[in-house]
Every structure is written in structure tokens, then in C-alpha cells.
Amino acid sequence: MQNGKIGVTTENIFPVIKQFLYSDREIFLREIVSNAVDATQKLRTLSSKGEFKGELGDLTVRVTVGKDTITVSDRGLGMTAAEIDKYINQIAFSGANDFLEKYKNEAGAIIGHLGLGFYSAFMVSKKVEIITKSYQEGAQAVKWSCDGSPEFQLTDADKADRGTDIILYIDDDSKEYLQESAIQGLLKKYCRFLPVSIACGKKKEWKDGKEVETDQDNVINNVEPLWTKTPGDLKDEDYKNFYRELYPMQDEPMFWIHLNVDFPFHLTGILYFPKVKSNLDLQKNRIHLYCNQVFVTDNVEGIVPDFMTLLHGVIDSPDIPLNVSRSYLQSDSNVKKISGYITKKVADRLTQIFKNDRKDFESKWDDVKLFINYGMLTEEDFYAKMEKIALMKDTEGKYFTFEEYKKLIEGSQTDKDKNLIYLYATDRETQYSYIEAATSKGYSVLLMDNSLDVAVIGMLEQKFGQNSRFMRVDSDTVDKLIVKDDVKGNSLQDSELRMITKVFGSQMPKIEKADFHVDAQPLGENALPVMITCSEYMRRMKDMAAIQSGMNFYGEMPDMYNVVLNSDHKLIKSVLADAGKECNDQLKPVQDELDALKERQSQLRKEREGKKDDEITAQQKDDMNSVDSQISDKENAISDIYAKYAQGNKVVHELIDLALLQNGMLKGEALAKFIRRSVELI
Ligand code: ADP
Ligand code: MG
Description:
By secondary structure, the protein is of the alpha+beta class. The protein is 42% helix and 19% strand. It contains 21 helices and 22 strands. Helix 8 (333-356) packs antiparallel against helix 9 (358-378). The structure holds adenosine-5'-diphosphate (ADP) and magnesium ion. Magnesium ion is lined by residues 31, 34-35, 112, 117.
């Protein structure tokens, strides 16, 4: 019998372990079971080297849940009293290091160095016993016992077979772990791919409508997960099956990458590309990080670039430091290399698909573009790797690389200032007529209908350089989107222009947070009579405001729309002619007065010319003010005449409503009114 003190300097380390060592108490099970697995693997190593000559036999690790205890039993190499003293009593003196030192080359699969494993048992136990017998011939079995104080007892014990039983006497505040189902759940989480069979309880079976226990062991794990196998031996079906094993609820993955490096770090794993249809599908925490087949975490932030967290699968590496903070992780040189390696592998795989089968790549593009775009936006390196293969899609569903697309539009979409204009639409349905206007002019229109595309456009403009610009098809009339020659002058006279813009302007609806500015331009006889556009600049500012805080200023501003009347269109011409006929009698006297006032105004202005403020008499100032206000009265009167005329003109209303309808701005009562009016007109 030996009594002694565990070799730590602090008098009472256990409260510390209990509270601070691990935030997740449940990992005690992972630690104890992985020690059992380590002990088993070590024995296998010794056996293969001929240093252990006995029978290995059944090596299953068994986890048994009793009334007050959880017992983890293995048939690994066991410990002598001296080894207990060395490996258990000296806290944090890990036997794994010794072993690794000695068997550097064979012992690749030792989980040990995760940390202060064994003592995590005290997070949930009031007492822990180790009953163990070394594999060495004639070894004496021993029992170590400790109740959570620094004192322990070590005595001889009876144990027939080699190996170790760890018995945890569960604390009153951890009783939830005394359920077999809870323990099975934890084993499934952490031990699902451990390399030695782990059994807990018996398999269950449905019999006569009841679930009954069979006499077969309930083995928790798959000891040879796919990522540990040689890629050359595997078929597509194997990868798909493994994906289903990992994510039973997911659609089939599109493709995958088998990772396998030995130098300068160890890393294996399989990354799957899921189909990402919308931003809603974006789910992080789908990559599981393992360390020698022990589950560590499903949060790989800091270990792989952010966009990679959209992938699914498994990464297994003993070279990722796991006991450190996330911010430290990002600066760790191994982690940086790992992150770079994975990025490269992913880029290589995508490039390979692109090169081998362009059609196949195109068919997958819509499902991977979110991932690729996200990567290009956030990682400079990844942009550089993708810029030759990333695709753009036009509104007809054709795909182009950046280079191909540039070639395509260079001839037709360069404006008079040598700017290359990329036209795009965000919605094929609602922007249909604008797309049509552009394509019938021989232009190509890109479809950029994903919410990430706002950012993608910004990125591409920056990358493509100064002379490339993106314009949404509905941001201006087609002639102004890409200005070829200096625009031809308006075919209308000033007075006509004033008349037609007032007639229509007076009838624009009051829509909350929307301002309309009416103008007339010759758009050709075949173009629509009225078009509503929203400037690219304003819309972008608003889009940005929507995703970025601190830009509320733009968010608060009303949407400003340009209403363009096509002065070439016969309906606009006939409104103009009719308005002239109907209003001229009323307008004439007002207009005459206005002309006279204007005359007077310019006279007064002339008198003031070159004079300083104090040289102008009070009389002159009063005259000026009075003329100004009379002019604005007359102008209002003219506007009123047009408004009154326009109010009774069904064509004006119909044309405005059609334009609104086309932009999805005609709703509710206004829409009902439009329908009623249209029926009447028919
Ligand atoms: P680590 O696993 O990182 O080495 P632990 O605290 O988990 O640290 O374990 C300390 C040491 O105790 C192990 O390295 C091993 O030598 C020994 N040990 C723990 N559990 C067992 C076991 N079931 N069988 C044999 N040795 C064990
Ligand atoms: Mg351990």
C-alpha cells in the first residue's frame, strides 16, 4: 500500500479543474475513452513490433453505465504501479509524449496530446478509481483511488486480464450522465470514428411492437472512416455514402475533395461541396474537426478561411493546436499553412472540373457560385486562382469567363469615352422590357440575381479597372446606358417640352419614399411611350445602405425615379397635340401676362447690374420681389391648367400606370383603378 500526494504544487487543483479547465464538462468521456483507445493502439504497436507476444484478442473498449458509476474498460497495455506514479500522479506529465518519443514513426495515431485528459474525470466525479494490469509478464494488478483531494491511495488489486478499468463515481450534480442513452449520445458525438471499437449497452430490436435488448454489443463507431483510406481505392459511391453517414438529411453533394498531406503538417479529410441554392442554405458549422479520429469541434472558424466554412465534411489533423484561443489560432503558422493548403486544393479541384468538362462545370455553376463569389470577395488569393474560371451568366442562360465576356461585348458596348459598359439585370421577369430593349440593340445583359451580386459587381469594377462599368438595364434609357455619339437634341420645342412634362408630371402618383422627375427624350418610334428608370448610382447607394450600417443617410432618402416620355412615340405626340388644342385658349391670356412679367423681370435685372447691394433702392427691391412672386403665381396657374387637363385624360393615366406596372410599382387601389379604366377603354 502506498499513500502519497499527487505531484502538483497547488494544494487543491481539483476545484480548478472542475470549474475552469474545460468549459464543456461532457468532454470527460471523450478524454477517458480516447485514453483507452490510446492504450489499445499502443499495445497493437508493441505487438506488431514483436515486443508483445501474447494474443491481442477482442480489443473492444466497453463503456458501462451503472447506478452511480460509469466504467470505461479496455484491454490495452495497462499500467504498473510505477507507471501510475509517473503518468497519473504527476499531473500533466503525459505518457503520450514518452511513447511518441520512443516510437516516433509507428505511433502516428496516438490521440493523447489533446491535453490534461485524465483529470477531466473530476469534472463529473466525486471519486475515480483505476484498476489496471500491465501487459508485461507477471505484472501485478494495482488499484489507484482518489476522491478529488490531492491525496490518493495505491494498492495491489485482483484483476485477471490485462488492461484498465476506469471507474467514475459520478457526482450528485452530474447525475444526468448516469443515463445510458446520454452516454451513448456523447459517444456518438465524440467517438463516432475512433479507430478501436467502442461498445456501450446492447443493440436493441423491435419485437412485438416493443423495443427489446438483444445480446449483441452496441458498437458506437466506424473504426475506418473514409478519410483514413487511400483515395485511389475509393469510388464515388463510397464518398456519397459517407456523406449520407455524416449528414443524413442533406441532398447529395456535388463533388468532393479528398485531402491528404504529410508534410509540412499532417492533415487528412474530405471536403464536400453542397448545393447552395440561396443564401438561406448557407450553414456554417458543417465541417467537423477531428484530431486522430476524435471529434474536437464543428466550429472551424479561424482554421479555414471564412468562405470555406460553407463546405461540408471532415478535417483531421493532429497539428492544429486545440487548447488555444481562436485569435491565437489565426496567427499560428501551422494553421496558416493548413488554411493555404485547403484553399489551394479547393481551387485546384474547381479548375480541374473546369478544364476537364466545361459543360459539367457550367451545370454546377449556379450551385457553387455563391461559394466561389464569397471566396473571391474575401480572399485575395482565391480571386487570383478563380479569375480564369469564374463564370458570368447572361439573361439567356449562357455562361462566359470574365475574359470571354469582355471579348464578346468589347465591340458593341464601348461608349464614346472608351468605357466598357457591362449591362446587368437583377430580375429577368420584372426587368423584361429593359432587357429586351438592350438585347434588341445587340447588347448582352448579365443576370446578377443573387444578393451577393451587389458586392460582386463592386469587386469586378475594381478588378477590371477604371474603364469598365456596370449598369443595371433599367438605370437609364438604352441610348443613355451606353452613349455612342453625342446625344441628338430633343425634337421638341421648349414650350412643348414644358407642356408635356407638366401634363405627365402633374399626374404622377404620391408614393411614399419615391420621387419622380419627368423628362422627354426621342427614344424611337418602337420604344415604349413612357419608361421609368432609377439611376445606377442612387440604387447602389441604397443597396449598400441596406447591408451596411452607418449609411442610413442614403437609406432614408426617397427613391428617385426618372420618368422618360418618348417624344417619338405617337401616343405622346397625340397627347401633346391634344393638350395644345384643349389648353391654348385658357393658356393664352396667362401666358401673355407671364411673358410681360418676364420682360419686366429682365429689365429690372438689367437695372441692378453692376450695382452694389446698398446702391439699390428699396423701391427697386420691392418691384423685383413683386415681379418674382407674380411670375411664380402665373407659372402655378399654368401648371394648374395642365393638371386639370391631364386629370381628365385617360391616355395620360393609362400610360403612367403601364410604366408603373412594368416596374412593379402599381399596387392595391391604384392597380384596381387601372384595371377598371383599361376595361372601359377596351
Ligand atoms: P494524455 O492522454 O494526453 O497522455 P492523460 O491525462 O489523458 O494525458 O493521460 C495521462 C497518461 O495516463 C497517459 O498518457 C497514459 O500513459 C496513462 N493512461 C491513461 N489512461 C490509460 C489507460 N486506459 N491505459 C493505460 N494508460 C493510461
Ligand atoms: Mg488522454
